[in-house]
Amino acid sequence: MPKIITTVGQRPACLVNASVTYVGNDQIYAFGGFDQYTDEVYNHVLKLNLNARQWSLVDNYGDIPGVRMGHTACLWQGDKLLVYGGENEHRVHLSDVIIFDLKTAHWTQPELSGPTPRGRARHAAVIHDDKLFITGGMTGHENSILGDICYLDLKTWTWSRTWHFVPRYDHSGFIYNGRLWISGGVTEEMERTGELWWLDIRGTPAFEGAPAYGMASEDPSYPAAPRFSNFAVVPTAPPITGNTGYAANSSSVQVNPGPAIHHRNPPLAPAAISSLKFVSGPNVPAQNIGYHFHVFSSGCLLDFVTPASVISSLETSLSAFDLETLKWQRLADGKDLFNPNYRWHYCCLDEDGTSAWLLGCPNQPNRAQGNDGEETLSDVLHIDLRKFGLLGNALSQEAKEQTHIPSSDGNGFSHLSGIGADLARTFDTPPESGSGTDFIITANPDTEYSDMDDDTSSISTVTSENKNGPGSRPIHVHRFILSARWPHFARLYNAQMAEFHTKKMHIPEPYSAVKAFLYYLYTDSIAASPASGPASPIPSFSGLHTGSSPTLEDVAGMLVMSNIYGMPRLHHLCVNRLVKELDIQHAALIFDRASVAQEAWLKRRAASFCMTHWGRIVRTEGFRRLRRSAMLELCEEVDQEGRVVGGDELEAVGGLSGSRFGGGMYREGRKRGRANSSRSIDAEESESVDDDGMEVS
């Protein structure tokens, strides 16, 4: 379980609807919000130094904004916070833009042009391509829910016109693959939703060019939205002194730069709008249970389901929705992440999406820590997302591009790209053919894991000769490539060890794993070939021709080698692919290799998968090939009070096919313990048939 950090210093109260942003350099900034007990609204700027574990109140200068809550604060240009909107203590919804310079602690307000969007709070904002996109939110004294989208051009500080998108508030927004995605939040029917909406902004002139605005009636090319919150002309507030319309450190009085005209029926956004509804599934998180944080990382929508007072720790989790495959995956159970004695109020990620920080407090404030019984944002939970198979935004984008860029001119049919496809043609080719290979590597024969010595299978020692009997057939490689790509080989060769003189090396690992590892050094890729898709049951790299992608068994072996030779990038790539393609045929093998590689999270993930599908797992070739010690270790993963439940019993409680035990009986909310439900099993089955799956529109 990740360690909880208790902070010191000027810890803020448990603020509601504040903005919390990670700005780099191990610093988190909090701004605004209101006290959940006194309803006092703030405009304080607070900084949390994660290294020192200390909160401090930031002295800020310039055009200091008034108090606000429900605003957004986006990191811009690496050293500025771009704050938009919110609601002040007078229930006035704001539509201003203010900039906080992190280096100088100065506030400035740019001069804006274009049609000012309606003031709002609890909206979503995201910066992309020098544009600040704003979606949804709530506005007015009646808290009307907005369903519009607009953007501010950050080069010209010009607002675009407003289009209709989807009515939401308290939702999340992010940009990925040329699309603006909206997840979670509350609908017009005041229900929390798990629907996912997206808008194709790539290739749409209205979202890629300079803003063009005017009256809706002037542009009849787009149909009007069928329904929208009632809009009207918002009058300009009386002018007051100051560039921002605020007296420093005073309550806010909104001053719009000009009248904002809002149409009752704005046109639909001039791009493809799609949505995805998740009806049910064993890994689909229920949005009406727990407290959810939706964030984006590594091409996935992450859903942190954190503890709440009305749910048990069994209902908390971390799940990921792959935006390429459109599949949910449970990355971790809540009991492995969240201490049930704490609750979390905010979540923020670093720019690369490899680390997440949750800010919260104990359920029962500790007077011994100087809280005086009051709740503060006193505790931080740091979660390293790379341990759950997420590569980070940069590395995942790099891996994604490798599968889409055409191959080189010399090889037009490889799933690899550029130089990787060319080098792959020379891999394991005898020097007589003109390949230029000048080094030989051998490995252990591919033996059954059950025949391996349990005491000697976990650590490899490179030798110039195989002293343990006959080795594999030679693998022809280039010294230059190995020296450039493999630090261990470079050190060994520079020291002029025996391998330097013999031009041979033996690696006491299975041949298929060694060959796949060396092939990675040439291609820098372990991705599955698009033509073949996910790896099929248990063929090995030794049986595939050069140019084929490594199978899951090969990748599992490479995971062990990445741990032995200290290659973190390869380690992350292996974990990412293994968890994405974890299946019945390979689960037992992945458990074994994760255990040898000391990859604790992947080991637990594979063990949980095996326990869920035990009857199928024990009938696979991968399970039969396990070493005896690995087989016993897997069997001991079940808790002491566990038992095997037959298929008939599972079907009766809706736990068949990997569904959460008892999940098929209760469809709404937390209804455990209602064993005397009057609903019949037949009725439950009919409902599950009707609702299973997901809808795309």
TrEMBL record:
Gly residues: compositionally biased ranges: 657-666
Ranges of residues in domain BTB: 457-530
Superkingdom assignment: Eukaryota
InterPro entries associated with the record: BTB/POZ_dom, Kelch-typ_b-propeller, Kelch_1, SKP1/BTB/POZ_sf
Classification via SUPFAM superfamilies: Kelch motif (SSF117281), POZ domain (SSF54695)
Pfam families in the cross-refs: BTB, Kelch_KLHDC2_KLHL20_DRC7
Acidic residues biased stretches: 683-697
Keywords, sorted A to Z: Kelch repeat, Repeat
Gene3D superfamilies linked: Kelch-type beta propeller, Potassium Channel Kv1.1, Chain A
Region named Disordered: 446-471, 657-697
Protein's name in the database: Galactose oxidase-like protein 1
Organism this protein belongs to: Elsinoe australis
Lineage of the organism: Eukaryota, Fungi, Dikarya, Ascomycota, Pezizomycotina
